[in-house]
Specification:
101 residues, alpha+beta
């Protein structure tokens, strides 16, 4: 894999600081453990609504990745369209990497 963002997400996952799935990401936002929520470019708008509501309600940043669900899932080793980064350092670094693209 030669994609820095996807590689970094893999590191987040191995560090157990990445929560995968719409319900889990919304729950993480509600519990106050989420610092950033990311989602795939082809993620369903209907599935994203509850995540966006939770993120807005609890002040969590949400960023759309220029990657598909298939690319994200391949990088993380699990079917994934949305994920929550539950570490401030990882979230800040990921935000910088995405904005630099």
């Amino acid at each position: 894999m030669n994609d820095r963002i996807l590689s970094f997400l893999g590191i987040c996952r191995r560090a157990k600081k990445l929560v995968i799935g719409a319900e889990s990401a919304a729950k993480s936002a509600k519990e106050g453990t989420s610092f950033l929520i990311i989602y795939a470019s082809d993620f369903s708008a209907n599935s994203l609504k509850p995540v966006m509501q939770a993120a807005n309600e609890y002040g969590v940043s949400v960023i759309k990745l220029n990657r598909t669900k298939q690319e994200l899932s391949f990088a993380l080793g699990k079917l994934c369209g949305v994920a929550s980064v539950d570490d401030k350092g990882f979230a800040d670094k990921l935000r910088q990497m995405i904005e630099a693209e």
